# Entry
Amino acid sequence: MPDPDLVTQALARNLKRLRTERGHTLDALAARAGVSRGMIVQIEQARTNPSVATVVRLADALGASIARLLDYDESAAVRIVTADQAVPLWTGPDGGSGTLLSGVEAPGPLELWAWHLEPGEGYASEAHPAGTVEIVRVESGELTLSHGDRDHVVPAGSTASFEASQAHGYRNDGAVPVRLTMVVSVPPPR
# Structure
């Protein structure tokens, strides 16, 4: 796992750079992302470690991947992310986790995630921008995928794909850990 201070510094640097490149003032980005101006200032000054939801809102508002916001080495033409460099962004109360493995801008943000949910754990996601698609491949256990007002059971060895422009979530209602790989594709900014 990368040094948390390194990730915080990368987020601060990349958020400010992307905000400036896109011509957003602090107030404009705050309004666009639904994040307070004060929170953005604290993030850009590396004085806080924001929630996953906050990072997602900022990435969506900037039309960037979470990986790009957290990238602490953008200089290489080929980027290899070793297991210890992957960034865990969600930790469940019983030991589950959601780890961003990699991401690119192609032409919009494209992210690869590894998730581990212990029995009884779940993660609820807000709606993403229209056109966002997620693909989930369950490697072990049985995932309960919430999409809108419906639950879908996704057994090990199965893949689910869906439009993620409405609230959705992932739960482990079973007795064994669930491991899954997820790809998130966000459309490029308008």
Notes: The chain has a mean pLDDT of 88. DSSP finds five helices and ten strands in the chain. The chain has two domains: 4-70, 86-185. The first helix runs from residue 4 to 21.
